[in-house]
Amino acid sequence: MLTTSLIHTLLIFIFTLTPKADDILGVWLTADEDGHVEIFEENGKFFGKIIWAEDMYEDDGVTLSKDNNNPDSELRERTIKNLVIIEDFVFENGEWRNGNIYDPNNGRTYSARMRLRDGKLHLRGYIGFSMIGRTEVWTRLETD
């Protein structure tokens, strides 16, 4: 029979493993290590914007790169810097769901879900069913 203190310890351990909604907040290094995305909360939903990317500037090193691959010609004038690529995620049952992720490299938007595992962000983008998709693992960046 389990003692009360052992049960208490197990409950504390279980609750510390269960992610909280704001555990995802912060700056993340993308899987290809070519971008930093800041995830933030607004009105109970979670979003992410590009705050740094290897190709953030044109060849002159001064002019900000544009969202050239966007299928909507009116959106191609947006700059990559501060471009919101993660939108409308809600926290439910230990994961972030029902959101979208935009890939500025190909101009496509995917349905997505996100989970934290061992301090890493597992972001799964898909079209239609989540079983048919791709998962990327992002690493949290330490900020000062």
Describe this structure in words.
With 144 residues, the chain is mainly beta. It has one domain (21-140): Lipocalin (Beta Barrel). It is built from 1 helix and 8 strands, in the order αββββββββ. It has one helix at 4-17; strands at residues 26-29, 35-42, 45-53, 84-92, 95-103, 108-117, 120-126, 133-140. Strands 1-2-3-4-5-6-7-8 form an 8-stranded antiparallel β-barrel. β6 (108-117) and β7 (120-126) form a beta hairpin.
Element layout with pairings:
Blueprint: H1 4-17, E1 26-29, E2 35-42, E3 45-53, E4 84-92, E5 95-103, E6 108-117, E7 120-126, E8 133-140
Describe, in short, the structure shown.
With 144 residues, this protein is mainly β.
Question: Whole-number radius of gyration?
Answer: 18 Å
The counted number of beta strands is 8
Give the topology string: H per helix, E per strand: HEEEEEEEE
Helix content: under 10%
Could you say how many structural domains there are in total?
1
Shape call: globular
Q: Strand order, biggest sheet?
A: 1-2-3-4-5-6-7-8
| Terminal CA distance | 47 Å
What proportion of the residues form beta strands (DSSP E)?
Answer: 35-45%
CATH level-3 fold name: Lipocalin
Q: What integer is the average pLDDT?
A: 89
Q: How would you characterize the largest beta sheet?
A: 8 strands, antiparallel, barrel
Structural class estimated from helices and strands:
mainly beta
CATH architecture: Beta Barrel
Which CATH class? Mainly Beta
Low-confidence stretches: 8-16
Q: What is the number of helices?
A: 1
